[in-house]
Structure formats: structure tokens, C-alpha cells
Amino acid sequence: MIVVMKTDATPAQIDHLSREIEGFGLKPQVIVGTHQTVIAAIGEERAGLVEALEPAEGVEKVLPIMAPYKRASSELKRERTVVKARDLAVGGNRVAVIAGPCSVESEEQIVALAIKLKAKGATGLRGGAFKPRTSPYSFQGHKEDGLKMLAAARAETGLAIVTEVMAPEHVELISKYADVLQIGARNMQNYQLLQAVGDSGKPALLKRGMSATMDEFLLAAEYILDRGNPNVMLCERGIRTFEDHTRFTLPLASVPYLQDKSHLPVVVDPSHGTGKSKLVEPMCKAAIAAGADALIIEVHDDPEHAMSDGAQTITPAAFATLMAKCRRVAEAVDRGL
Amino acid sequence: MIVVMKTDATPAQIDHLSREIEGFGLKPQVIVGTHQTVIAAIGEERAGLVEALEPAEGVEKVLPIMAPYKRASSELKRERTVVKARDLAVGGNRVAVIAGPCSVESEEQIVALAIKLKAKGATGLRGGAFKPRTSPYSFQGHKEDGLKMLAAARAETGLAIVTEVMAPEHVELISKYADVLQIGARNMQNYQLLQAVGDSGKPALLKRGMSATMDEFLLAAEYILDRGNPNVMLCERGIRTFEDHTRFTLPLASVPYLQDKSHLPVVVDPSHGTGKSKLVEPMCKAAIAAGADALIIEVHDDPEHAMSDGAQTITPAAFATLMAKCRRVAEAVDRGL
Amino acid sequence: MIVVMKTDATPAQIDHLSREIEGFGLKPQVIVGTHQTVIAAIGEERAGLVEALEPAEGVEKVLPIMAPYKRASSELKRERTVVKARDLAVGGNRVAVIAGPCSVESEEQIVALAIKLKAKGATGLRGGAFKPRTSPYSFQGHKEDGLKMLAAARAETGLAIVTEVMAPEHVELISKYADVLQIGARNMQNYQLLQAVGDSGKPALLKRGMSATMDEFLLAAEYILDRGNPNVMLCERGIRTFEDHTRFTLPLASVPYLQDKSHLPVVVDPSHGTGKSKLVEPMCKAAIAAGADALIIEVHDDPEHAMSDGAQTITPAAFATLMAKCRRVAEAVDRGL
Amino acid sequence: MIVVMKTDATPAQIDHLSREIEGFGLKPQVIVGTHQTVIAAIGEERAGLVEALEPAEGVEKVLPIMAPYKRASSELKRERTVVKARDLAVGGNRVAVIAGPCSVESEEQIVALAIKLKAKGATGLRGGAFKPRTSPYSFQGHKEDGLKMLAAARAETGLAIVTEVMAPEHVELISKYADVLQIGARNMQNYQLLQAVGDSGKPALLKRGMSATMDEFLLAAEYILDRGNPNVMLCERGIRTFEDHTRFTLPLASVPYLQDKSHLPVVVDPSHGTGKSKLVEPMCKAAIAAGADALIIEVHDDPEHAMSDGAQTITPAAFATLMAKCRRVAEAVDRGL
Which of B100, B252, D40, D160 could form a disulfide linkage to D29, CB 3.0–4.6 angstroms apart? Predict the structure, then answer.
């Protein structure tokens, strides 16, 4: 950690900071510059240290040096993590595809759809049973009935079930049915939920919060990892910016960035990431070219009558075309699909 | 609702949309423009309707007309809501001040501080017992012990206790001690939590999510109101933007905007909104001048040794000065403090 | 255009608006809704109309229906524009590559580099002679001498010269040497400059402003097109968001979006778009997979000693690898490179 | 400057960096940390140094210590700058008010309006003669005729004329009529223009770019100051964020921040900053409470028929009320108006 002193900091203030740094178990090294003095604090940087030193008198700013996450870091664990749930494997050579409707609507619907998705190469089935909705007046999901419908689709196809969990008290129930627990963007910093999913040991698909930095995203993963659950997938699903021609802005540079900083596999969600069905296919291809380990895509037999998210949902026919095209891109970057 | 058809939409597509709109119980009115046809859908706009109509063929975009929130809207309830908890009243003529440390650290600390804050005019005492922290390695709060310390401070001073609740399962416990349940920015769309706070009937201080639009913010309030709890305060605490000289960007135009659209009172948090103690006083004055109904401010006896958020915390001495200055600004806009 | 009246708008206000709309040469059609009246204004939407109607009493908001740009729109011109300058052709089946240093430093440097770039498949040579720099104390470019160095590199290789023009009064001089005039992100709304480049008739590479919406970007192109210069390339170079792990956020969904709304070709700049040399290759591949018509890439023999932008610059060796990999991705989306 | 080396940086890389730092005339000091080595570079930090060192092998990141601006910094010049033009004085105890229409429309209009504004306490008259417009089809201003109309209004009232200059070649012409040259947000990084305004010696009102950081804003001012023109006013006019209920987000914390870092006076533009006439008065009061040295406000006799920006323009009657209210707030912070 580097403590930058103000240009008019007094020797007493510099001394005081040095003693504070020692008090935290670090070794201070004072560097007298042309205009300002800086103090390097040598040792293990702990969370909260920046906050602790910044308010002291004479301090201009405190610059952390080390990444704040540990277990998620590629420095601690060099080999890449592969998260597995049935035939779904995310993080290996093959790009995985998780597909399905925004909300599970009926058993008939989900089973028929799952068969089509499996036939085109999906290995995971997404579908919401507990739905977080911006408005209290929107459809909130079929809850446990929805989970049973997903289980029926799995019984038929073997696809791994990926479904969202919205509250710690639902983890146990949803774990009975699901293969992968999805944590939604709006819950990325719901720490009780992260810990409950960590305790469950179930594979987790953690969506990036719509205004989360990379450090915050990896620290959210850290909450799960820290409970002894190593099976975390990071999912880029778009961020909120000033752009208004898409629902969110999908920043694909986060894929190679995360893969460099962390050993965890990276999933991309071009459905939420764009909010427009027409943009899903090009962004799926782009995500694979950027190195994504998996895609998660909203597919519905009749997007116009989907109970949620119709505007960003594609049909099974469009999904079939997309898979064929994505397979070619995957091969061009030496991966399967 | 206005459905804008593409320039090359066919008569069959326009017909189809009209029937869809009727199917939702609205009356379609087709307007043939110079380049494009638009269809006005007359009747009650329900949540999910935009989503339902947007994916249909021939549709360019769907424009909602009505605000998506109802109970929070000033159109339904014209007189302004005043939320009361002990001597704390937010929404009336007097600007209320809630102050206290980021985290409750010890009974001695909180009682001594509460006495000082009360003496300078605070009517609410803030203090975290359950702390949401970005890193799992940061101090997470004293939990129920912290609540007891807050209760001791209330017993001494009569200040209303404002403290954060992070999970639905904590609502009952925290309600035993707190006068106001705070919902943090990261939980603004934790719907289970909103509903649990709604069910509790306790006054709620709802912080704006760091990337929430005004509609999303008011819809989050709607989740609480919809459970029959009318005691909701809206708290602007800053948004995430590209700015890096402050921790967040504090957009005060949201104060008069929210007061125009909603009958709910508006609180401003300049401590989180700027992240810098030096900027707290000017932004408190600005918030009052913009019409804020209350302020929530982080104060600590020794910010340098606070267990969290030291950089944005002010001392009791600075708080005393701030109160004197804010009182003059409040009077200049015909309010007390 | 749709004028949404307030819920308490009076008949007199509605009448007034209708007459205003007629005054602008449009036909008003009043639609009485359940809660609110809206007025559809039928006819040609002109710039400034929204602004003109919004302040009238009783108006809640004004919603434009038509795109504000005309000549850039794919509705007016269906076949795609191909911009050509020597062997550089942007917009056809083959993905074009423009490469070179941030700043031209010496004739020797630029000629030697151009030979290497040409050998690997580049058809355009980028290089700054007039440099817009955030600080007045940074290197500002070799100016006309730099242009002569670029011309020498073209004489040797035949590569088309792409270089930035920063002011209207430089257009004539730079046009003597350059094949393509680049308009930088910071000048996207420098209208005098856009018009001067429009008047020159030279192919233009227009960079997206770092906080420009798609409509603003296409309207900036409209300024050039409106002067009778059809040779405009749109360049996505990243936007400013809260993200801090990259220099900018590169939103590739703008590629298919722009290609849908406009007939103009789309170039992507992954060097500025990420600011990190390590992320250039994955984002080049992603851009091609998303459908980009061209790439513009910063290459320097010795990035560590480049006079500007070293951190995002790659070496000729890295460029050779990148070209080989990008060629495979281009083929996977049925394009050449 | 602090160079942070990667955890696996080799001694040779650390040596190499040390020599590079010496090559730039600074003194390297190597600090061996628990996980990483950092090198402090002692001496004058020049522009371009970060860029130069970052691409070197073994470097994780480079952290600058000193502010990149010099002449704008309050460290170099402690007493606050007061910019004067006729009766307009910005930066002293009295809060100045510059008011007027977005565009100058006719001599009759501007003279009549100027008389009203002066009567209520304005000391500056704003009005656009050369208008930068997003669309080439919008009204572009009356140009020199508009300047003459402004001069007529000054002859009648003595108000200082503040008008925008859009291109370096217009500086001479506009300087003949105007008292203050305004540089618009879209031109904040038009360096030719900044230099031309610097050379003119005329007082300059520099608007913040809609996505400019504070450092970039102050560096733009530096371009003017560096030409020997000390008369620069910094104008906060709102930034672009995800917020869509206002035209821009007006971040008032920039007022005390800029006043701390710089000696230049700070102006706030609540008209562009909110885009809504209804929000202008509360944000004017808030700006004064936050410490603004001046306000710039759009006023028009008939906003509904203004040739531009009607939605954010207030009437002379509203201006009179606003001035009375703002005067009270100014007094509450010990300033006049």
C-alpha cells in the first residue's frame, strides 16, 4: 500500500502515519519526493486498511497495490477451474451452451423445448421458477411447481438445470431440484445469499451486478469460495451505461480480463446483455471469439407470448441457426461447441 | 401505450397487433403516419405489456405512457407523506437529521456519541449492526450485540434508531430494537427483503440502488407500499458514474424530481454520496437548498480509527458546525432544522 | 411524434397543442385514454420539434417516432456503402485492417513498420501527425513533417494513409497527403470540422464520441453526408462508463446495431477501446465475429518507447499472430481478411 | 510516480525499469514488498511518463502521484482568481448571475429581455449567435447578426456579453462583440479552440465536457492558462450517466472539489444540467449552497416558441422569483447575489 501525503504534510503527520502503519502490522518506508512524501506500507494488505488510513491528517490519498480477492485469483491457483454439473462442463475446451425460457411456464412447454435445445447441442437448461421482477405487479414465477417442471425436463433430456435463487431461505428447496444455482445481477451483493450458496456446495452461476466493477464481482465470488464451494462460474450479463439503444451495454473485454485475473470460468449472457433478440446471435459469436467458456441464452417457442423478457428471446429455429454459426466461430478459436 | 410499427410493417402485422392489444383488454386505435403506422392502446397499462408486445413481428418499439408505479405516485395520493418514529419526523416542514457512525463499535462509544448528536439537533441515530461489506474479509458488524448498544443509546437520548436490515430472516430480530429499518443500496431490488419490511409495518428508509433509475427506485418502494406499509422514506445516496474524484456521484436533482412524482419524503446521504468528509458539509447545505426532507450523515469520534467508512466520516465538532450552517440554509428555504 | 398530455391537462391546453402542431405543418390526432390524452402528430418530424412542444403547458412529455438522421439511414439507402481509398475497401466482404503507430515518429520508423504491416495483410496505415492530447505538456505530433513521413511510407507500400484532422483549417493541408481523414472521438461534435471534412469529399473515418448515443453518432455522420460526401466510415472506439479495469468500455453490440440502422460501414478500434495491449487480440476477434467491416489497430516496433499510447500498442510480431487468428475468425463468419 | 511490478517480475525487469526511470531524469527507489516490488520514481512527473512506463515487461501498473495540471492548481497559486468583465465579477464574495436565451433571435427580443434580467440582478447576458447543434437540420444561430443584437443589448444595459465560440477562426470576430468567450461542452477538448481563446486574452467560460473527469477538465483549462490568459471560469453543466429522468446528471460535489484543487472560479449551469425548467430553481439554490461562484441560466420570454432548448428555459417571471429565493440562500452562506 502506498500512502501519498499532501504537499504541506508536516513531519509529525508523516511520523504519525508511519506509526499507524506499524500498528496494522506493516512496515512503513518513507520516500521523500520532490513535491510530496509517500510512505510505502510493506506487508499483507488487509481489507479496510485503505479506509483506515485515508482519514488521517496530512494524507492526500491511499493507493492499494494488491488485488483484494485471494481465492478467486489466478495468482493463488494457476490451473483453470472447470465447473461440472451432469453433462454441462464450463471452463474446458468445449464452449458450453445453457438455453431456455426466461420463466418456466408449463411442464409441456419446458419439456418440449428442452428436447429441441438438447438436439441442437445445449447441455444446460435455464428457466426461472422464482423470478425477481422490477414491478410487484409482474409475473413472479411458478415457484416450486416451476422447479418440478424443470426436473421433468431434465428427466426427459439429461440437461443440467440452471435456475435462479433469490433468497437464502430458498437455497435448500431449490437445491433439491437444480443442478446449478444462479445468483442474479440484482443479488450480486446480497451477502447472505452468497454465503448460503457457498454453504450449499452446489455449482453457482454468479451474474455480474449491472454496475459492479471487476474487483467487486470477484469479491462477490470470494464470498462463495470462502465457504468452501469452489464451483463458481462468473457471468457477464451487461452493465448499465448511458447507452439507450440496447437494454444494457455488453462489455466483452471483461471475458479475457477475468480469465487473466481469475481461474474461474466465464459465461456470457447476450440475451440480457443486449435486450434485443436481433443482437443475440452476433453477440454470441463475439463472446466465443473473445474466449467465453459458455453462453446462456433465452429461447422460447413463442417469444411474443412469453410471460417475461420476450423482446430479447429467440425461437428454437433461430437457436438452431445460431448454434451452427457459433460452432464455426468456436472452431476458429480452437474450441468445440 | 403506443406501439410504433416498422416502416415496412404489413397490414396483416398491424391487424395482428390490434388483436393482441384487444386480447390484453385494451382498445387499439390505429394512426397512419407519413412514414409509419402507430397503434395507441387505450386503457390500463399493466406491467409486462411492453415486453409482451415488443417481440411481435412488424413492431419497431413500444412506448409506455403511464408511470409504472401506483401507490408511490403523487397522482394517486396528493398530500405528502410524513414518516414518524419517536421524535424523528421526515416529510414535514422541519428538515430532519439522522447521524451516527457507520458501524456500532461499543456501547460506550454509541451512547457518548448519541448524546453529542442529540445536543446539536439530530433526531435519529444511525449505526450499523449487520454490515454488508464488499469483501468477506472486512468487519461484518456486531449483529444482535450491536442492536443492544443502539437500544442503550436510545434509552439515554430518545433518538430514533435507524439501522440496516440485510435479509428477510433478520427483519423480526432487528424490528425488536430499531425504529426505522434501513434497506441498503445493494439490496434495493432484493424483493424478498422489501416484502418482509413491508409486512413488518415498520418505517423504512429505502436507499437508491447505485445504478437504479427513478422508475426502478419508486417500484422498489412500491413493493413495500403494496404490503400495506405506507411509511417509506426514499434515500438518494449517489449513483455510479465515470467520475472518480468522489466515491459516487450525488445527483441532487432527484430530490425535487421525486417530490414531484411521489408523495414520499426524500432523504439525502452526502456521506456515501461523496465518500469524502471534506465534501459532506457543502453537499448537506446543497441538499437542503434542493428541498431534501432529511439528511443522514456519518459521524464518529475518531474517524481515523472507525471500523468502516472513515474517509467519509466527520467528527462531532465538524457535525456541530455543519448543523449551525445547515440551519441557516434551511431557514433560507422557509424550513426549520 | 406523440405528445403525452398530463393527467390534469385541460381541454384548452389540448386544443392549444393541436393548433401548435398544425402550425408546424403536421396533422394532430387526439386520442383520449383512460388516464391521459395523447396527441399524435402526423407528418414529417423535423429537428427541434420535440424541444418546441415540450415546454407548452399541460405537456407531460413528447416522444419522437422517427429516426432523426436521414442520409445515414438504411431506410433511405438500402445497399451498403463501401468506402474505398487505394487498396483499402471498407464495407465489402473482406474485413479491412488499418494499422500503425499512435504518432508518426520518424520516416525511418514509419516506412519500416508499414512494410511489415503490409506483409501481414494491412491495407491502411494509421499514424498521427497532428495529435489531440489531454495535457498541453504532452507531445503534440510532428505536424506537416509527420504527413510527409506518412506519404513516404505510402510511396513504399501503397497502403492508404489514415490520419487525424483536428481543425477545419487543417483539412486542406492534410488532404494533400492523406487518403482518409480521421475525426477523433473528442471532435465528433465539432460541427465546423465535420462540415469541412464533408466539403473536402475525402473518405472520412468518424470516431464515436466517448459518451455519444447512436443517434448522436449518426447525426454527426449526417453533417458530413449532408455536404455531399458519401464516404463515411463509423468507428466504434469505446465509451466512458464506470469501468476502471479498461481505459474505455468497448460495446460491440453497436456493430450489428449500426449496420441495421445505417448503410455505412463500421470499423472497430480495440486499441483505444480497451487501452491494454493484452486485450487487443481477443477484442479484434470478437469485433470480426460481431460483424465489423474493418479494424484499426495501434502497432509500434517498441511500444515501451512509443511517444504516446504505449500501453495499448502491440508489436509487429503480435500483429502477425493476431492477423493469422483473425483470418480464421473472419472465415468462420464467411468473410475474408 | 509509483511503478508496481508484477508478482513474478524478474530482477532483470526491475533493473530495466530503474534504468528507464533514470533515463527520464527521475530517481528510482526500489521497495521490496511481501508479494510484489514497487519502484518509486522521485522527481518531476511529466505528462506521458505513465504511458511510457506501463508497457514495459514486468509492470503491473503505474500510479501517478502528482496532479497533471499546474497553472490551474491551487497549490501553485493560493489566492482565488476573480474573473471580471464589465460589472460581471466571478469568484468574489458576490454570486454572479448570467442569464439569457439559448439563441439570440432578434434585437427586439434580446434588448427587452436584457432590461428585465438586469432589473432583477443579472450582471451577465448569455445568448447564442453561433450554435452547435446535434442535428445539421436544426437552427444554427444568426451568427454575426446575432452578435450585433447582443451588442445592442449591452449598449442598453451594460450587461457583460457571454456567447459561445465554436471554432478558432471565429475567435477574432466574436471577440469584437463579446465580453466573455464561452467554450461549449462538446468543444472542451477542441485544443485548437482552447489555444485560440487562450491567445485572445479574453475572459473564458469553459464548460465541462459531458463525460470529462476533473483532471481532464482542469487540463483543458490548462491549455488556456498556458497561453498566458488567466481569466478562466470553470462551468459545471452536467454529465452523461444512465439517468433518463433529466437530460444530464448535475453533480454539485464538483463545485467544492474544484474550489479545493484549483484557484479558478466555478460556475453552475442548472438549465443544461437538468434539461427541465421545473428543476432549474431548486438546483440554482443547491448550487449556491454548495458554494458556486456564479450561475448561468436560460431565460426566454416565451419558452414554448424559443428557437432552441425551450424545455429547460424559464420565463422572466420565474427568473424574478428565482433571484429572490437565491438571494436568501446566498445570504445564508454569507455571500451576496
Answer: D40
